[in-house]
Specification:
five-stranded mixed β-sheet; 9 strands; alpha/beta; Spore Coat Polysaccharide Biosynthesis Protein SpsA, Chain A; globular
């Protein structure tokens, strides 16, 4: 089973421009993304997919300097960006990762890949509530092509797998139960605002390890509420 991880990344952000190039500990956000995705067992290739706008030349340059595969496509039609990127690798499965999640759970992602290797379904559904910023999505390449063909609404083009959740009856799913030590939905471990960056910087400084276990990050935030509360009030943008 050939599986690729595609990390969507761009410089443009209404709340925190160029957030993925910001320093995080001794590295930067994209370095955390790449290190953790490369640690996912069963993933054959890790690619950053950015837009073809001039402002995202900075991301393409970062990829060249760090010897990371880079694909450039539509800024607004993220679904098409994923499909055109994946076509170059002809995978069986595509893992979707967003670059604003520098502590994505690579250990759990490894278990999800292993589960799909046995089940061979269209998509994995997570049972349980994670902190925002730890999850990955795993979808069959054929299912992604179907979504690309039939998903026409803006929410389908921007959010890549949204159609599969909205019309779940059209897809075969396998369920993965989130371990109890990861079920902490009150925590926010993602990067959208200055408050998020402040909190994540404190986590990175404490561990000083891009491959720190997400379980340890959760435990640290639960034991240091003064850090977890820095961005606890931030609301996620709705899907429209």
């Amino acid at each position: 089973m050939k599986t690729i991880a595609i990390i969507q990344a761009r410089v443009g952000s209404s709340r925190l421009p160029a957030k993925v190039l910001k320093r995080l500990g001794d590295a930067d956000v994209l370095s955390y993304d790449i290190a953790r995705c490369r640690a996912i067992q069963g993933v054959d290739e890790v690619i950053i997919a950015t837009s073809d706008l001039p402002q995202d030349d900075a991301i393409a340059k970062w990829c060249e300097e760090h010897h990371v595969a880079c694909f450039r496509g539509s800024e607004e039609d993220v679904l098409d960006r994923y499909v055109q990127c994946a076509k170059q690798y002809e995978p069986d499965y595509v893992m979707r990762v967003t670059s604003d999640c520098p502590f994505v759970d690579y250990e759990m992602a490894s278990e999800i890949v292993e589960l799909m290797a046995h089940e061979r379904k269209d998509i994995v559904l997570l049972q349980g509530e994670l902190p925002r910023g730890l999850a990955v999505e795993l979808i069959a390449y054929d299912a992604l092509l179907k979504i690309h063909e039939v998903g026409k609404e803006p929410r389908h083009r921007e959010h890549v797998t949204y159609y599969a959740y909205e019309y779940s009856e059209q897809f075969e799913a396998v369920r993965y139960t989130v371990p109890s030590n990861r079920q902490a939905p009150e925590l926010r471990i993602t990067l959208d605002t200055e408050e998020d960056y402040d909190m994540l910087s404190k986590v990175a400084a404490y561990f000083n390890d891009p491959l720190v276990s997400s379980v340890d990050v959760i435990r640290y935030l639960q034991e240091t509420p003064e850090v977890a509360s820095i961005n606890a009030h931030i609301e996620q943008k709705p899907v429209i």
